[in-house]
Amino acid sequence: MEKIKACMVNLSESEGSLDTIREILSACLKPTLLISHVLPAVSHQEKIQEAVESIIRLKPELVLIILSTRHFSLAIHFINSLSEERPGPEIVAFFEDGTSEAAIELLKLGAGDVLFPPFTEESVVPRVSRIIIGERPEELFLKKLKEKLGLRKMIGRNSAFLAEVNKIPQIARCDANALIAGETGTGKEIYARSIHYLSRRAAKPFVAVSCGAIPADLFENELYGHERGAFTAAMAPQAGLIQEAEGGSLFLDDVDCIPLGAQTKVLRFLQEKEFRPLGSARVQHSDTRIIASTNTDLAKAVATDIFRRDLYYRLSVISITLPPLRSRQEDIPLLARHFIEKYQAEFDCPVKDLSPGALQMLMGYDWPGNVRELENVIERAVAFSSKALIDVKDIGLPEDDACLEAKTFREAKSQAVTRFEKQYIQELLSTHQGNISQSAKAARKDRRAFWELIRKHKIDPRNYKVTSG
Asked: Within 13 Å of residue 271, how many CA atoms lie on the same side as its CB?
């Protein structure tokens, strides 16, 4: 394989880390990696531009930066200047004493990965080698997502949704802890699996655990395992979830449900990557990435002392928020038709699509259960339908009477009028196959006024065009 040319730049106080990293890479990656230049220590602003110009002239494929908190501002300026070059080199930062927040800042600026001490063969070589000899995740991103089992649910064109999806390759390239926030049913586990399968850990286990489903007194046993005799029922040693996920990713779903008493040990594991099974005197080390999720506001839980502040910061090195389905209205037809295709094949039913009225019914619903609720509704409709099109009467959506009772008379009346307007317009468009002029005439309204009502209720007349088949 052709050699990859690299440069090293020292933005630190000493030469110790630079020498260590250089020795490790030279010993382990010598056939592939050629460290052609080691630029002298850069500790002043005026030297940054000189270093950038040297790198531009040398044209390396990889730049290795050693930095300390004291010179963090220099690192930001350096990476910013280097990122202006197109195409620019890959950047790997070795942060001697930095924080997770500072590391995220470097990743956002364009660093491919950020490593923390101790700098060992086990931590440095895999992280650097996957950048220099692996294919760029961005180039294979969509292809790989489609290839991996279960990831076909990453469907949508909503800009807020795509903004979070497009972060997956970058998040997968580093090993920082990630916290995925979002309402129940928004696809947090699917997102976590995407991160895992696009990372260097893809060949290792992805272990998912619902923290809320584990009784408080069994949480530590489930996570860390136990030795024989650790407690009365411990007749044999048992590995915990951390050991099961060794080399891979551990997904802590509903992380806000971790018992307060167990949060201290979880924090220590995140900090030191070590744990002790119950009943054992021996500390064990683990190479496991933690990806967590929550459907609550963890910041509020921290403010009310339900969740440890330091654990929250450790978990949320990278934070992602998945939007609810009600704010992704344009994705509802895509998701609905995807689920129709899925369950039509599974149940061997004649269903092929939704009627215009049925689609608008789905578009007008609030979806408190998000994508998961939509899937359940479509699955039920496909299972009980004997026609090619799912109609309005085939779709069962719950009535929220409790919400109606909680509102004032004026609010309830306004909501009822809005609901009537929307349903009336939908029925007219369905009857006249999306023709606005004919629908307005039937309603005895001016075409422009009728069009304003369509816009008010965010109705797309194109959904009412009759399609063949």
From this structure: 11
Angle at alpha carbon of residue 136, lines to 133 and 142, rounded to 5°: 140
**3-state DSSP assignment of residue 9:** strand
CA atoms within 13 A on the CB side of 45: 2
pLDDT exceeds cutoff 90 at 214:
no
pLDDT value, residue 315: 92
Query: Tokens at residue 192, please?
Result: 């976590």
Q: How far apart are CA 424 and CA 412, in angstroms?
A: 18
How many alpha carbons lie under 13 Å from residue 327 in its C-beta half-sphere?
11
Which residues of the chain are in CATH 3.40.50.300 domains?
139-321
Enter the tokens of residue 197.
């399968």
Q: What are phi and psi of 157, to 5 degrees?
A: -130, 5
- Third-level CATH fold of 327-464: Helicase, Ruva Protein; domain 3 (1.10.8)
Instruction: List the CATH code of the domain at 4-134.
Output: 3.40.50.2300
Q: Where are the alpha helices (DSSP H) in 198-308?
A: 219-224, 241-244, 263-272, 298-303
Q: Which amino acid is at 5?
A: K
Q: Say how many C-beta atoms besides its own lie within 10 A of residue 400's C-beta.
A: 11
Give pLDDT, residue 2.
58
Q: Return d(Cα 248, Cα 242) in angstroms, integer.
A: 9
Superfamily the domain 139-321 falls into = P-loop containing nucleotide triphosphate hydrolases (3.40.50.300)
Q: Give the rounded percent of residues in the chain with a pLDDT score beyond 70.
A: 86
Tokens of 20: 């260590």
Q: Calculate the CA 210 to chain-centre distance.
A: 17
From the list 414, 351, 419, the residue with the least C-alpha distance to 380 is: 351
Tokens of 320: 């992602």
pTM of the model: 0.57
Q: Which long-range contacts (CB under 8 A, 24 or more apart) does 24-29 make?
A: 24/119, 24/120, 24/121, 24/124, 24/125, 25/64, 25/124, 25/125, 25/128, 27/121, 28/121, 28/125, 29/125, 29/128, 29/129, 29/132
User: Which two tokens mark 208?
Assistant: 């998912």
What burial class does residue 238 get, using C-beta atoms within 10 Å of its C-beta: 0-12 exposed, 13-18 middle, 19+ buried?
middle
Of the ranges 156-165, 360-369, 417-426, which one carries the lowest mean pLDDT score? 417-426
Spell out the alpha helix ranges (H) of 10-44.
Answer: 16-28
Please give the Cα distance from 161 to 265 (Å, whole number): 34
